[in-house]
Write a structure and sequence with these properties.
Elements lengths: L2 E4 L1 H14 L5 E5 L1 H6 L2 H11 L3 E4 L2 H10 L5 E3 L7 H6 L3 E4 L2 H13 L5 E7 L13 H8 L4 E8 L11 H20 L5 E3 L3 H6 L7 E4 L1 H4 L5 H4 L6 E6 L2 E5 L4 E2 L5 E2 L4 E6 L17 E4 L2 E6 L7 E4 L10 E5 L5 H7 L4 H7 L6 E3 L2
Helix pairs in contact: 1-3, 12-13
The structure holds pyridoxal-5'-phosphate.
Amino acid sequence: MTLLEIDLKKLEQNYSSLRRRLNHHSKMIGVVKANAYGSLSGLIAKQLVDLGVEALAVAYTQEAVELREYGIEIPLMVFYPQVEGFRDIILHNIEPVWYSKRSGKKFKEALSEEKKSAYPIHIKYNTGLNRIGFHPREAGWVMEQLDDSSFNVKSVYSHLAQTEAPKPNEKTENQISLFKQIMNKHSQASNQKPEFHLLNTSGVFNYPEYHLDWVRIGLGLYGFANHPEWNKTLQPIAQLKTKITQIHHITSGETVGYNCGWKASKNTRVAVLPIGHADGFSRQYGHGKGWVLINGQKAHIVGNVCMDMFMVDIGDIPCNEGSEVVILGAGIRADELAENAGTISYELLTASGNRIPRVLKT
Ligand SMILES: *Cc1c(COP(=O)(O)O)cnc(C)c1O
Protein backbone atom coordinates (compact mmCIF):
# COMPACT_ATOMS: atom_id res chain seq x y z
CA MET A 1 0.00 0.00 0.00
CA THR A 2 0.96 3.63 -0.45
CA LEU A 3 2.32 5.56 2.55
CA LEU A 4 3.69 9.04 3.14
CA GLU A 5 6.41 8.71 5.73
CA ILE A 6 7.22 11.87 7.69
CA ASP A 7 10.58 12.31 9.36
CA LEU A 8 10.34 14.73 12.29
CA LYS A 9 14.11 14.53 12.85
CA LYS A 10 14.61 16.09 9.42
CA LEU A 11 12.02 18.75 10.18
CA GLU A 12 14.03 19.62 13.27
CA GLN A 13 17.28 19.76 11.27
CA ASN A 14 15.69 22.02 8.64
CA TYR A 15 14.27 24.25 11.33
CA SER A 16 17.67 24.59 13.04
CA SER A 17 19.47 25.19 9.78
CA LEU A 18 17.02 27.95 8.80
CA ARG A 19 17.05 29.45 12.28
CA ARG A 20 20.85 29.69 12.26
CA ARG A 21 20.62 31.60 8.99
CA LEU A 22 18.29 34.29 10.38
CA ASN A 23 19.40 37.59 11.81
CA HIS A 24 19.38 37.33 15.57
CA HIS A 25 16.39 39.51 16.22
CA SER A 26 14.23 38.02 13.43
CA LYS A 27 11.36 35.74 14.42
CA MET A 28 9.92 32.90 12.41
CA ILE A 29 6.39 32.36 11.14
CA GLY A 30 6.14 28.67 10.27
CA VAL A 31 3.83 28.31 7.27
CA VAL A 32 1.69 25.17 7.56
CA LYS A 33 -0.96 25.88 4.92
CA ALA A 34 -2.26 23.15 2.59
CA ASN A 35 -1.83 20.43 5.20
CA ALA A 36 1.73 21.56 5.91
CA TYR A 37 2.66 21.33 2.21
CA GLY A 38 0.95 18.01 1.78
CA SER A 39 2.24 16.34 4.93
CA LEU A 40 0.13 16.58 8.11
CA SER A 41 -0.58 20.04 9.47
CA GLY A 42 -1.57 19.23 13.07
CA LEU A 43 1.47 17.10 13.70
CA ILE A 44 3.87 19.49 11.97
CA ALA A 45 2.38 22.54 13.69
CA LYS A 46 2.73 20.89 17.09
CA GLN A 47 6.34 19.97 16.36
CA LEU A 48 7.15 23.49 15.13
CA VAL A 49 5.70 24.96 18.32
CA ASP A 50 7.89 22.61 20.37
CA LEU A 51 10.91 23.60 18.27
CA GLY A 52 10.26 27.27 18.95
CA VAL A 53 8.56 29.04 16.05
CA GLU A 54 7.06 32.29 17.33
CA ALA A 55 3.93 32.08 15.13
CA LEU A 56 2.24 29.89 12.53
CA ALA A 57 0.38 30.80 9.36
CA VAL A 58 -2.11 29.17 7.02
CA ALA A 59 -3.88 30.39 3.89
CA TYR A 60 -7.55 30.01 4.83
CA THR A 61 -9.63 30.32 7.97
CA GLN A 62 -10.80 26.70 8.05
CA GLU A 63 -7.18 25.54 8.21
CA ALA A 64 -6.60 27.75 11.23
CA VAL A 65 -9.78 26.60 12.98
CA GLU A 66 -8.62 22.99 12.58
CA LEU A 67 -5.27 23.83 14.15
CA ARG A 68 -6.95 25.56 17.11
CA GLU A 69 -9.18 22.49 17.55
CA TYR A 70 -6.05 20.35 17.45
CA GLY A 71 -4.73 22.34 20.42
CA ILE A 72 -2.35 24.82 18.79
CA GLU A 73 -2.34 27.92 20.99
CA ILE A 74 0.42 30.18 19.67
CA PRO A 75 -0.32 33.19 17.40
CA LEU A 76 -1.89 31.90 14.21
CA MET A 77 -2.13 34.05 11.08
CA VAL A 78 -4.50 33.59 8.16
CA PHE A 79 -2.97 35.00 4.99
CA TYR A 80 -6.12 35.05 2.83
CA PRO A 81 -9.17 35.34 5.11
CA GLN A 82 -12.46 35.57 3.26
CA VAL A 83 -15.17 37.77 4.73
CA GLU A 84 -17.55 34.85 5.40
CA GLY A 85 -15.18 33.41 8.01
CA PHE A 86 -14.62 36.49 10.18
CA ARG A 87 -16.79 35.22 13.04
CA ASP A 88 -14.85 31.95 13.17
CA ILE A 89 -11.63 33.94 13.21
CA ILE A 90 -12.72 35.93 16.25
CA LEU A 91 -14.19 32.92 18.08
CA HIS A 92 -10.90 31.03 17.75
CA ASN A 93 -8.59 33.93 18.44
CA ILE A 94 -7.01 33.72 14.99
CA GLU A 95 -5.10 36.67 13.51
CA PRO A 96 -6.44 37.78 10.13
CA VAL A 97 -4.64 39.73 7.46
CA TRP A 98 -6.28 42.91 6.15
CA TYR A 99 -5.70 43.23 2.45
CA SER A 100 -8.48 45.42 1.07
CA LYS A 101 -10.89 48.15 2.10
CA ARG A 102 -13.79 45.71 1.80
CA SER A 103 -12.16 43.08 4.01
CA GLY A 104 -11.08 45.76 6.49
CA LYS A 105 -14.54 47.25 6.88
CA LYS A 106 -16.20 43.86 7.20
CA PHE A 107 -13.75 42.76 9.83
CA LYS A 108 -14.33 45.92 11.82
CA GLU A 109 -18.09 45.19 11.78
CA ALA A 110 -17.47 41.64 12.95
CA LEU A 111 -15.33 42.93 15.82
CA SER A 112 -17.98 45.34 17.00
CA GLU A 113 -20.66 42.61 16.82
CA GLU A 114 -18.47 40.41 19.00
CA LYS A 115 -17.59 43.39 21.25
CA LYS A 116 -13.86 42.91 20.89
CA SER A 117 -11.11 45.48 21.18
CA ALA A 118 -7.37 45.58 20.60
CA TYR A 119 -7.77 42.60 18.28
CA PRO A 120 -4.51 41.37 16.69
CA ILE A 121 -4.38 41.87 12.92
CA HIS A 122 -1.77 42.05 10.17
CA ILE A 123 -1.74 44.34 7.15
CA LYS A 124 -0.67 43.26 3.70
CA TYR A 125 0.48 45.63 0.97
CA ASN A 126 0.64 44.78 -2.71
CA THR A 127 4.01 46.08 -3.89
CA GLY A 128 3.92 44.41 -7.30
CA LEU A 129 2.94 40.76 -7.13
CA ASN A 130 -0.58 42.03 -7.87
CA ARG A 131 -2.23 39.20 -6.04
CA ILE A 132 -3.56 40.48 -2.74
CA GLY A 133 -2.97 43.52 -0.57
CA PHE A 134 -3.58 47.25 -0.21
CA HIS A 135 -2.13 49.48 -2.87
CA PRO A 136 0.68 51.58 -1.36
CA ARG A 137 -1.40 54.68 -2.10
CA GLU A 138 -4.07 53.33 0.28
CA ALA A 139 -1.64 53.56 3.21
CA GLY A 140 -3.28 56.81 4.36
CA TRP A 141 -6.70 55.16 4.61
CA VAL A 142 -5.22 52.14 6.37
CA MET A 143 -3.48 54.27 8.99
CA GLU A 144 -6.65 56.27 9.69
CA GLN A 145 -8.44 53.02 10.53
CA LEU A 146 -5.73 52.14 12.99
CA ASP A 147 -6.44 55.15 15.19
CA ASP A 148 -9.12 53.01 16.71
CA SER A 149 -8.99 50.86 19.80
CA SER A 150 -10.53 47.91 17.91
CA PHE A 151 -7.15 46.77 16.62
CA ASN A 152 -3.69 45.85 17.61
CA VAL A 153 -1.64 45.90 14.41
CA LYS A 154 0.96 43.26 15.00
CA SER A 155 2.65 43.42 11.63
CA VAL A 156 2.74 45.05 8.23
CA TYR A 157 4.09 43.02 5.34
CA SER A 158 4.36 42.43 1.62
CA HIS A 159 5.21 39.47 -0.58
CA LEU A 160 7.85 39.38 -3.29
CA ALA A 161 7.28 38.02 -6.77
CA GLN A 162 10.60 36.32 -7.47
CA THR A 163 12.83 35.86 -4.44
CA GLU A 164 14.71 32.95 -6.03
CA ALA A 165 15.83 34.93 -9.11
CA PRO A 166 19.55 35.80 -9.26
CA LYS A 167 20.54 39.20 -7.89
CA PRO A 168 20.47 41.98 -8.84
CA ASN A 169 16.80 41.78 -9.69
CA GLU A 170 14.99 44.92 -10.72
CA LYS A 171 11.49 43.74 -9.86
CA THR A 172 12.50 42.75 -6.34
CA GLU A 173 14.42 45.99 -5.82
CA ASN A 174 11.36 47.97 -6.83
CA GLN A 175 9.17 46.01 -4.45
CA ILE A 176 11.64 46.45 -1.60
CA SER A 177 11.91 50.18 -2.19
CA LEU A 178 8.11 50.56 -2.15
CA PHE A 179 7.94 48.54 1.05
CA LYS A 180 10.57 50.72 2.69
CA GLN A 181 8.38 53.75 2.07
CA ILE A 182 5.43 51.93 3.62
CA MET A 183 7.55 50.97 6.64
CA ASN A 184 8.51 54.61 7.13
CA LYS A 185 4.92 55.77 6.97
CA HIS A 186 3.72 53.17 9.44
CA SER A 187 6.61 53.73 11.83
CA GLN A 188 6.10 57.48 11.90
CA ALA A 189 2.40 58.05 11.59
CA SER A 190 0.33 55.77 13.68
CA ASN A 191 0.30 55.32 17.40
CA GLN A 192 0.61 51.62 16.67
CA LYS A 193 4.15 50.29 16.30
CA PRO A 194 3.88 47.31 13.98
CA GLU A 195 6.63 44.88 13.09
CA PHE A 196 7.59 44.24 9.46
CA HIS A 197 8.25 41.32 7.14
CA LEU A 198 8.86 40.56 3.51
CA LEU A 199 10.52 37.20 2.90
CA ASN A 200 9.56 33.59 2.16
CA THR A 201 12.03 30.68 2.11
CA SER A 202 14.07 31.66 -0.95
CA GLY A 203 13.99 35.28 0.16
CA VAL A 204 15.62 34.28 3.45
CA PHE A 205 18.51 32.79 1.48
CA ASN A 206 18.76 35.48 -1.17
CA TYR A 207 18.08 38.66 0.83
CA PRO A 208 19.69 38.26 4.29
CA GLU A 209 19.73 42.04 4.62
CA TYR A 210 15.88 42.07 4.68
CA HIS A 211 15.05 39.48 7.33
CA LEU A 212 13.48 42.41 9.26
CA ASP A 213 11.35 41.49 12.31
CA TRP A 214 9.83 38.30 10.93
CA VAL A 215 10.28 35.82 8.09
CA ARG A 216 7.55 33.55 6.69
CA ILE A 217 9.01 30.13 6.02
CA GLY A 218 7.09 27.28 4.44
CA LEU A 219 8.92 25.26 1.80
CA GLY A 220 12.27 25.35 3.59
CA LEU A 221 10.89 23.56 6.63
CA TYR A 222 9.82 20.72 4.36
CA GLY A 223 13.28 20.50 2.82
CA PHE A 224 13.34 22.59 -0.37
CA ALA A 225 14.55 26.10 -1.19
CA ASN A 226 14.24 26.61 -4.97
CA HIS A 227 17.99 26.61 -5.64
CA PRO A 228 20.54 23.76 -5.76
CA GLU A 229 23.00 25.46 -3.37
CA TRP A 230 20.34 26.40 -0.82
CA ASN A 231 18.78 22.93 -1.09
CA LYS A 232 22.04 21.46 0.20
CA THR A 233 21.36 22.93 3.65
CA LEU A 234 17.98 21.15 3.93
CA GLN A 235 16.49 17.66 3.65
CA PRO A 236 13.05 16.61 2.40
CA ILE A 237 11.00 15.50 5.39
CA ALA A 238 8.55 13.29 3.49
CA GLN A 239 9.04 10.05 1.63
CA LEU A 240 6.25 8.60 -0.51
CA LYS A 241 6.43 4.84 -0.87
CA THR A 242 4.26 2.10 -2.25
CA LYS A 243 4.37 -1.56 -3.22
CA ILE A 244 3.86 -3.24 -6.60
CA THR A 245 0.28 -4.47 -6.89
CA GLN A 246 0.70 -6.64 -9.98
CA ILE A 247 3.25 -7.38 -12.73
CA HIS A 248 2.36 -8.11 -16.37
CA HIS A 249 4.55 -9.61 -19.07
CA ILE A 250 3.92 -7.46 -22.12
CA THR A 251 4.87 -8.49 -25.63
CA SER A 252 6.17 -6.08 -28.21
CA GLY A 253 3.29 -4.17 -29.84
CA GLU A 254 0.89 -4.47 -26.89
CA THR A 255 -0.54 -1.29 -25.40
CA VAL A 256 -0.83 -0.28 -21.74
CA GLY A 257 -3.48 1.87 -20.07
CA TYR A 258 -6.40 4.04 -21.13
CA ASN A 259 -6.51 5.24 -24.71
CA CYS A 260 -3.67 2.84 -25.46
CA GLY A 261 -1.37 5.50 -24.00
CA TRP A 262 1.79 3.45 -24.44
CA LYS A 263 2.86 0.75 -26.87
CA ALA A 264 5.70 -1.65 -26.01
CA SER A 265 8.51 -1.56 -28.57
CA LYS A 266 9.92 -4.82 -27.20
CA ASN A 267 8.94 -7.56 -24.79
CA THR A 268 9.05 -6.22 -21.24
CA ARG A 269 7.47 -6.30 -17.78
CA VAL A 270 5.11 -3.63 -16.52
CA ALA A 271 4.33 -3.05 -12.83
CA VAL A 272 1.04 -1.61 -11.61
CA LEU A 273 1.28 0.79 -8.63
CA PRO A 274 -1.61 1.69 -6.29
CA ILE A 275 -1.55 5.48 -6.57
CA GLY A 276 -3.12 7.74 -9.18
CA HIS A 277 -4.21 11.25 -10.02
CA ALA A 278 -6.91 11.12 -7.32
CA ASP A 279 -4.02 10.88 -4.84
CA GLY A 280 -2.37 13.95 -6.30
CA PHE A 281 0.02 12.17 -8.63
CA SER A 282 -1.15 14.11 -11.64
CA ARG A 283 -1.40 13.07 -15.29
CA GLN A 284 1.50 15.44 -15.97
CA TYR A 285 3.85 12.65 -14.85
CA GLY A 286 2.52 10.19 -17.41
CA HIS A 287 4.21 9.23 -20.67
CA GLY A 288 7.68 8.96 -19.18
CA LYS A 289 7.74 12.46 -17.64
CA GLY A 290 7.82 10.82 -14.22
CA TRP A 291 9.57 7.80 -12.76
CA VAL A 292 9.88 5.76 -9.59
CA LEU A 293 12.75 3.85 -7.98
CA ILE A 294 12.60 0.11 -7.54
CA ASN A 295 15.62 -1.57 -6.02
CA GLY A 296 17.49 1.66 -6.64
CA GLN A 297 16.73 1.64 -10.38
CA LYS A 298 14.60 4.09 -12.34
CA ALA A 299 11.36 2.80 -13.83
CA HIS A 300 9.51 5.29 -16.06
CA ILE A 301 5.78 5.77 -16.05
CA VAL A 302 4.16 4.37 -19.17
CA GLY A 303 1.03 5.80 -20.73
CA ASN A 304 -1.58 7.79 -18.85
CA VAL A 305 -1.72 8.05 -15.08
CA CYS A 306 -5.16 6.67 -14.07
CA MET A 307 -7.33 7.87 -11.20
CA ASP A 308 -6.20 5.17 -8.78
CA MET A 309 -3.13 3.56 -10.33
CA PHE A 310 -0.31 4.03 -12.77
CA MET A 311 1.99 1.67 -14.59
CA VAL A 312 5.78 1.66 -14.91
CA ASP A 313 8.08 -0.19 -17.30
CA ILE A 314 10.29 -2.36 -15.10
CA GLY A 315 12.18 -4.25 -17.83
CA ASP A 316 14.72 -6.45 -16.04
CA ILE A 317 14.75 -4.59 -12.71
CA PRO A 318 14.81 -7.31 -10.04
CA CYS A 319 11.44 -7.06 -8.27
CA ASN A 320 8.22 -8.95 -7.59
CA GLU A 321 4.61 -8.21 -6.80
CA GLY A 322 4.79 -6.71 -3.31
CA SER A 323 8.27 -5.18 -3.80
CA GLU A 324 8.81 -1.72 -2.37
CA VAL A 325 8.72 1.32 -4.66
CA VAL A 326 9.97 4.83 -3.84
CA ILE A 327 7.86 7.55 -5.47
CA LEU A 328 9.37 10.55 -3.66
CA GLY A 329 12.20 10.59 -1.16
CA ALA A 330 15.58 8.87 -1.15
CA GLY A 331 16.83 9.21 -4.72
CA ILE A 332 13.85 11.11 -6.14
CA ARG A 333 13.53 14.79 -5.34
CA ALA A 334 10.11 16.42 -5.64
CA ASP A 335 11.66 19.51 -7.25
CA GLU A 336 13.43 17.49 -9.97
CA LEU A 337 10.44 15.32 -10.77
CA ALA A 338 8.17 18.37 -10.83
CA GLU A 339 10.48 20.34 -13.07
CA ASN A 340 10.69 17.46 -15.52
CA ALA A 341 6.91 17.50 -15.82
CA GLY A 342 6.67 21.28 -16.16
CA THR A 343 5.63 22.20 -12.64
CA ILE A 344 7.18 23.03 -9.25
CA SER A 345 7.81 21.18 -5.98
CA TYR A 346 5.07 23.19 -4.23
CA GLU A 347 2.43 21.68 -6.51
CA LEU A 348 3.68 18.11 -6.31
CA LEU A 349 4.05 18.19 -2.51
CA THR A 350 0.74 19.83 -1.68
CA ALA A 351 -1.19 17.52 -4.02
CA SER A 352 -0.69 14.45 -1.76
CA GLY A 353 -4.25 13.26 -1.32
CA ASN A 354 -5.97 12.23 1.88
CA ARG A 355 -6.33 8.61 0.75
CA ILE A 356 -2.62 8.24 1.47
CA PRO A 357 -1.98 7.37 5.12
CA ARG A 358 0.66 9.47 6.89
CA VAL A 359 3.05 7.59 9.13
CA LEU A 360 5.90 8.78 11.28
CA LYS A 361 9.37 7.52 10.47
CA THR A 362 10.66 5.70 13.50
C1 LIG B 1 2.91 30.42 1.19
C2 LIG B 1 3.41 31.75 1.62
C3 LIG B 1 4.68 31.87 2.19
C4 LIG B 1 5.66 30.71 2.31
O1 LIG B 1 6.42 30.62 1.14
P1 LIG B 1 7.59 29.54 0.96
O2 LIG B 1 8.17 29.83 -0.36
O3 LIG B 1 6.92 28.20 1.01
O4 LIG B 1 8.53 29.71 2.09
C5 LIG B 1 5.07 33.11 2.66
N1 LIG B 1 4.26 34.19 2.54
C6 LIG B 1 3.02 34.10 1.98
C7 LIG B 1 2.18 35.33 1.90
C8 LIG B 1 2.57 32.89 1.48
O5 LIG B 1 1.35 32.81 0.91
